Amino acid sequence: MRIPKVAIGSTLIGLLLLTGCGGSGPNNGQADAPAEKASSPVTIRVLQYSTDITDADFQSLLAEPVKKKYPHITLELVRLAKGTTLQDLVATGEVPDLIYTGSRQIENFKNLGIPADLNELIKKNKYDLSALNTDVVNIIRQRGEKGELYAMPIFLNFSALYYNKDIFDKFGVSYPTDGMTWEDAIALGKKVARTENGVTYKPLNPNAFVNFGAPYQVNYVNPDNHTAVINNEAVKKALTLYKQVADLPGNKDSVTNARSRFQKEQDLAMQPDFAEILGELAESGKTGNPINWDVVSYPSLADAPGLGYETIAFMLMLSSSSKHPDDAFAAIQAITSAENQLKLTRGGKVPALKDPQLLESFGADVPGLKGKNLKGIFKSKPSPSPKRSKYEDVARPVLNAYVQKVIKDEIDINSALRLAEEEANSKIKAQNNQ
Fold it and tell me: What keywords are assigned to this protein (predicted)?
């Protein structure tokens, strides 16, 4: 996911800070956390890592509800400056109190000893964990060897197929529909893969392979013995179909710059993507480059119907080095309260609370989403996330490199998977020997 540029002054070792204050907040459905020094102001720094959040969303969805519930707590957004790493923060003792990131990043933070186990704070504050999305909580808990819970979900990601209505209208082709398979999407894409007046219209972006194959719930590294398991039928089947999408006419250069093609150049007909693009599209009318778009459910694999990208949560992780764990947990409680979860749902975020009535208000406060097929988004479900090896992130870049070679016709699929597995095992072995 992209990390946006921020025009804010740097401090300390190159961290970028934004102070949170103001506004409207929640009626916390959980027991109130006993903040450490309720009469003394405290600043809780929140590191944004690998997952986008705008300054406005940070203020509205995180900082303001905390400030209203706990006036002495101020949230401060921290963005890593260019060239600064997590290792730098650990080495200098500058890890912020909370980390805002995605659930795929837990292993990276664990390897650096950053996250604190939240179980004791949950028990201490009588936090009702059962109110949260059960699948997401289980996924986060899987990342702990002994039942540790290293983060709290605050809202969830989703996958959907966004499409440019003007391109379909131009060629008299019917719009995409909910419930399509990838084969359906490929067939539809062929009908709009044309060149007219010097413009080559790209039909369908496959997006990243790790997302494409998620419904098969594959591991690229065995979580029990930590050996690569890339060369198997599930990965082969997914890659074969993935290449069919990439081989559609005009598609070769839309894999790496698809969002720009879809939103700016507007020569890409269909873009499967995450939740974050929904807000960008809703605001497109304000940028001077509006796009006539709509959305349907994410295309499914024929033998894994109704499943989209892997379940991913946007979450808050407590640093084990925080000097304000109780205040930081109080902030988490305010953010995950029923009132604030309704607010973010109405703003176009999928809530972490599992109350199904919340989704009835999805996007209600966003004018740019009026009239859009928002219910279609939820007709596909996130793919379950299997238990992962700590070396999964070693194997994925290796596989991705070979996937690109397959796309460029530099190597056949069977050879690519065999070589990727061998190379991944070599890299895992090298890490074990360090």
Answer: Cell membrane, Lipoprotein, Membrane, Palmitate, Signal
